């Protein structure tokens, strides 16, 4: 492994969805809504129910059954529950090849990368099997931690894993402004990622 020196940077903590993972397409949302509602006519109302219960699901406070029963307002049944969970998981597992390439270069340079993601238990298991996972020295998921970003406790797990003594020498990358704000309040350097890989490249640019 070739080691390079990064400008005032000892490690990187990365979000998954919206950074490594691509946001779901409208077609994927419609497919999930159709699985849930047996129609696609009220997608905004479905998404509202989906997100309203999501923090507790991501934090491991709701089982798959309890989450989907909350979203639907009734017990989905075993077969439909499997269909919902599988369709939901499939929405979040497409990755941005450009971002993965950038992280491969950072990993090869010796820069420690730590994943910190709000994700339910089943999705966490699936993500851990993806090839890009090998780039991470550690991966922390909210369902396993039982705490979600932007709770300070979530960041502390990741910070401890970096081994860095100074949070200002750790870069936190997330697509959500509130998560970045919370990280900055803890002294972390932040990149509010808005879908431009060039921004990530610049933030990780090593000094040769």
Q: Hey, roughly how much beta strand do the residues contain?
A: 5-15%
Q: What's the β-strand tally? A: 7
Output mean pLDDT: 92
Helical amount? 40-55%
Biggest sheet record: 5 strands, parallel
Explain what the structure shows:
Mean pLDDT is about 90; it is low at about 1-5. With about 210 residues, this protein is an alpha/beta fold. It has 11 helices and 7 strands. Strand 3, helix 7 and strand 4 (about 140) form a beta-alpha-beta unit. The chain has helices at about 25-35, 45-50, 55-60, 65-70, 80-90, 95-110, 120-125, 140-145, 150-160, 175-185, 195-205; strands spanning about 5, 10-15, 115, 140, 170-175, 190, 205. It is about 50% helix and about 10% strand. It has a 5-stranded parallel β-sheet with strand order 4-3-2-5-6, sandwiched between helices. Helix 1 (about 25-35) runs antiparallel to helix 5 and helix 2 crosses helix 4 (about 65-70).
List the helices and strands and how they pair.
Blueprint: E1 5-6, E2 11-14, H1 26-37, H2 43-52, H3 54-58, H4 64-72, H5 78-91, H6 97-108, E3 113-117, H7 121-127, E4 138-141, H8 142-145, H9 152-162, E5 170-174, H10 177-185, E6 189-192, H11 197-203, E7 206-207
Parallel strand pairs: 2-3, 2-5, 3-4, 5-6
Antiparallel strand pairs: 1-7
Helix pairs in contact: 1-5, 2-4
């Amino acid at each position: 492994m070739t080691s390079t020196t990064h400008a005032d940077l000892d490690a990187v903590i990365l979000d998954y969805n919206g950074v490594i993972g691509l946001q779901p397409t409208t077609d994927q949302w419609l497919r999930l809504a159709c699985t849930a509602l047996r129609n696609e006519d009220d997608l905004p109302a479905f998404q509202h129910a989906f997100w309203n219960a999501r923090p507790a699901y991501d934090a491991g406070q709701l089982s798959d059954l309890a989450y989907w029963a909350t979203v639907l307002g009734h017990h989905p049944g075993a077969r439909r529950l499997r269909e919902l969970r599988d369709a939901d998981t499939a929405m979040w597992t497409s990755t941005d090849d450009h971002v993965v390439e950038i992280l491969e270069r950072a990993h090869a340079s010796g820069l420690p990368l730590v994943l910190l993601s709000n994700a339910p238990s089943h999705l966490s298991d699936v993500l851990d099997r993806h090839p890009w996972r090998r780039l991470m020295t550690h991966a922390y998921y909210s369902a396993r931690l039982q705490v979600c970003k932007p709770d300070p406790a979530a960041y502390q797990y990741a910070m401890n894993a970096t081994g860095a003594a100074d949070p200002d020498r750790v870069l936190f990358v997330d697509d959500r402004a509130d998560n970045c704000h919370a990280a900055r309040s803890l002294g972390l350097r932040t990149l509010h990622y808005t879908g431009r890989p060039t921004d990530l490249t610049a933030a990780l640019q090593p000094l040769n």
